[in-house]
Design brief:
- The complex is a heterodimer of chains A (about 190) and B (about 525).
- Chain A is mainly β.
- Chain A is about 5% helix and about 50% strand.
- Chain A has one domain (about 5-180).
- In chain A, strands 2-3-4-5-6-7-8-9 form an eight-stranded antiparallel beta barrel.
- In chain A, a hairpin with a 7-residue loop joins strand 6 (about 115-125) and strand 7 (about 130-140).
- The two termini of chain A are about 25 Å apart.
- Chain B is α/β, with parallel strands linked by helices and about 525 residues long.
- In chain B, the strands form four sheets. A seven-stranded parallel beta sheet of chain B has the order 6-7-5-8-9-10-11, with helices on both faces. In chain B, strands 14-13-19-15-16-17-18 form a seven-stranded mixed beta sheet, sandwiched between helices.
- The longest helix of chain B is centred in the last third of the chain and has 18 residues, at about 435-450.
- The chains are: A mainly beta (about 190), B alpha/beta (about 525).
- Chain A: It comes from Pseudoalteromonas shioyasakiensis.
- Chain A: This is Lipoprotein.
Chain lengths: ~190, ~525
């Protein structure tokens, strides 16, 4: 029995190798380069992970995305089901269940300092109806990071993993805002239930 | 008794009986009779025989004669002995010079450089000591933190520069402007491991290019994030009448890469030796031109390259890839025949070159089968997109490989006389990427502009677009842009249409952005 439990613990730890998610909120909005196309993509995200409670919405539109343009482009509304600020620390296995994605950021994709949101989206393009899931990582670079970008937000990656836009991914400099801030009453992830 | 004159004349005549020598000059070493060197020299001079080298201590001369001078040589009286002056070549390199397939594809071989241009290469540095790269006329910027410009531990910048300006000197490779006459300025922004060094950002590097008097800026680099400040800096340089060229990116998907996707920059996609769009080459609405970017043969830092290199020529075909490890070095010519997978006899292929598809049996068995059938050489054609560097048992055969697309091209050209060469090149190698396509466009831009210095940068840019070799969908498309850049067609286009253009920043790609 002990050996089995130890094995489960090791396996669990191996699965959860990403950065720990911390309580924080994000408000993002602006335009960025289209996915290969001539126009601009429009992105807004409002999400929060506070005291273990997750909420938020994402809206996105990229009508000139090169591989979807002929079908009217990519366009969706989404409900956030996972969110958090990625810390530099890996997730502690204490109290964590095997495969629990609520407590960690996507390993090697959403890294320290990025804000990760996971969402269920609903296409608003009548030519490509349907639902799917996706995630996005973004970074607030307006707080003294010398990037020389002349903008204060980065969409590090957004990937739609299923549904009518499965495989669509985009990244770029947001001409607009990405603001990450503390929750009204922040609480360390270590104490999350 | 053998008449010495007769022997000399007969030997030279024998040498000239080989068709390849009949119309060429030939070098011969003449040893003078004892203490008769001076007299022999007088004889040579009075007969207008060119003395290439005088070896006084050995009482000998190396001379060059052609067939018309044969009679003069037979009259010499002070010759003790004579023999051909055999060539000696560098042991670190093959005796061959491969002409990269890309030069003909972009018509760089059809236009003469007229001077007056300076190409600035922003990259990982430049191997200034490379024997196949120019040194005169090449300057660089001070070490901004990435290292000195005249070294290139990473090797990328040296390869890019070689595509633009490698010297035509009978070994190695040649570039678009191959006679030392193109000025270049090197700005090193990548450290030895290829990582970006922030001592100067890209706008600063471009400023250095401008300060150095560059007319064309070549940027085989990029990233997914744009920068409004960076874009403004590039727009400013564009209005200063400098042409900027950058790589479209190698992510193999539809996405932008910067700086290539700024309007002020020509975004370059990559094609292979059969003009097919490279699978890694990004597509976007800002793609403007295409150029060779797959298995481009060019300079790398000295002694950096491995594996022998293989060259296939046939009419207009010119492919380069890797030789089989174990192949004999050298050249053979023969009719090209299809031998399937080489798993069984190909019949009598005496003196022919076997084209054999990869698969089912090891490479060495394919080569052995061809040799058993009388073949003189083997071309292994790949059956997928992966790289093919094969190993065979040491053989007297010439054997090498070609890509899948090249193999299919050769299958359409069976029965034709084909020449294959395997040679060692330790200072030259293949690289693939839109990084390799970019210097083709930069070099062609400089070449064309040198013929029409009165044109503006925008005028040259529009001419390159209008004269490109259309590929893919008719007209503009997101993979090839306006098509494969063409030097001769651009020169002809300007001759016919002029090169008037607005001085404002042009819309990049298909012109529809924003």
């Amino acid at each position: 029995m002990k050996k089995a439990q130890l094995g489960l613990l090791i396996t669990s730890f191996a699965i959860m190798g990403g950065c720990a998610k911390l309580d924080a909120q994000v408000n993002a909005g602006g335009t960025l380069n289209s996915k290969g196309g001539a126009g601009k993509a429009v992105f807004t995200a409002h999400a929060a992970r506070c005291d273990g409670e997750v909420s938020g919405k994402v809206n996105y539109k990229d009508v000139t995305a090169l591989d979807w343009q002929q079908s009217g482009g990519v366009s969706f509304n989404a409900q956030v089901y996972g969110a958090g600020l990625c810390s530099e620390d890996p997730v502690s296995p204490d109290g964590a269940e095997s495969g629990d994605e609520r407590l960690f950021c996507k390993q090697d994709i959403c890294t320290e300092g990025m804000y990760q949101v996971e969402f269920n989206y609903n296409s608003t393009n009548p030519s490509l109806p349907g639902e799917g899931v996706g995630f996005a990582c973004m970074m607030d670079i307006s707080e003294g990071i010398k990037s020389g970008f002349g903008a204060n937000g980065l969409l590090n990656v957004m990937l739609l993993e299923s549904g009518p836009y499965q495989g669509y991914n985009n990244a770029g400099t947001i001409s607009g805002n990405v603001q990450v801030k503390d929750c009204p009453s922040s609480k360390n992830d270590d104490n999350a239930e | 008794m053998i008449n010495k004159k007769t022997v000399l004349a007969a030997s030279i005549a024998l040498a000239y009986s080989f068709p390849s020598l009949a119309d060429q000059s030939m070098r011969i070493v003449l040893e003078a009779n004892s203490n008769k060197a001076s007299a022999l020299k007088s004889e040579l001079l009075s007969n207008n025989i060119k003395i290439e080298k005088e070896l006084s201590s050995l009482e000998s001369f190396a001379i060059s004669i052609d067939k018309t001078q044969l009679a003069n040589v037979t009259g010499l009286t002070n010759v003790k002995t004579f023999y051909p002056d055999v060539p000696r070549k560098l042991m670190s390199e093959g005796a061959s010079q491969y002409i990269p397939y890309g030069l003909a594809m972009v018509q760089a071989d059809q236009v003469q450089y007229q001077g007056g241009q300076k190409v600035c290469v922003i990259d990982s540095g430049y191997a200034l000591e490379h024997p196949d790269l120019p040194s005169a006329g090449v300057t660089g910027s001070d070490d901004g933190g990435a290292g000195v410009w005249y070294q290139d531990p990473f090797g990328h910048g040296t390869h890019v520069a070689g595509t633009i300006a490698a010297i035509d000197n009978e070994f190695g490779t040649t570039g678009i402007v191959d006679d030392h006459s193109l000025d270049m300025h090197i700005v090193r922004v990548f450290a030895g491991n290829g990582s970006w060094a922030y001592a100067s950002d890209l706008a600063g590097a471009i400023d250095e290019c401008q300060q150095a008097g560059s007319t064309v800026i070549s940027m085989s680099l990029g990233g997914k994030y744009s920068s409004p400040i960076e874009e403004k800096a590039l727009d400013k340089v564009a209005r200063a009448n400098i042409l900027m060229v950058a790589a479209a990116g190698n992510a193999g998907e539809a996405s932008h890469s910067y700086p290539a996707s700024y309007d002020s920059v020509i975004s370059v996609a990559a094609v292979d030796s059969t003009k097919n769009h490279a699978s890694f080459s990004q597509r976007s609405s800002q793609i403007e031109l295409a150029a060779p970017g797959v298995n481009v043969f060019s300079t790398v830092p000295v002694n950096r390259a491995r594996f022998s290199k293989f060259n296939v020529t046939q009419d207009s075909v010119n492919f380069q890839y890797y030789g089989m490890d174990g192949s004999r070095l050298g050249t053979v010519t023969g009719e090209l025949v299809d031998c399937g997978l080489g798993t069984q006899s190909c019949g009598d292929v005496t003196g022919k070159i076997c084209l054999i598809e990869r698969g089912e049996i090891p490479f060495y068995k394919k080569v052995e089968q061809c040799e058993a059938d009388g073949g003189v050489g083997v071309i292994i054609r790949n059956n997928n997109q992966s790289q093919l560097i094969g190993t065979i048992n040491p053989t007297s055969m010439i054997a090498g490989s070609v890509t899948r697309n090249e193999g299919l091209n050769l299958m359409d050209n069976l029965g034709k006389e084909t020449t294959i060469t395997v040679a060692e090149f330790s200072d030259h190698d293949f690289k693939s990427g839109t990084s390799m396509a970019t210097p083709h466009v930069s070099g062609v831009a400089a070449l064309v502009w040198s013929n029409y210095p009165e044109c503006s940068a925008n005028g040259i840019r529009l001419a390159l677009r209008a004269s490109a070799d259309d590929q893919g969908s008719m007209g503009y498309d997101h993979a090839y842009g306006w098509g494969i850049v063409q030097a001769k067609a651009a020169v002809d286009y300007i001759a016919e249409n002029g090169c008037k253009a607005s001085s404002n920043v042009l819309r990049g790609g298909d012109g529809s952005a924003h």
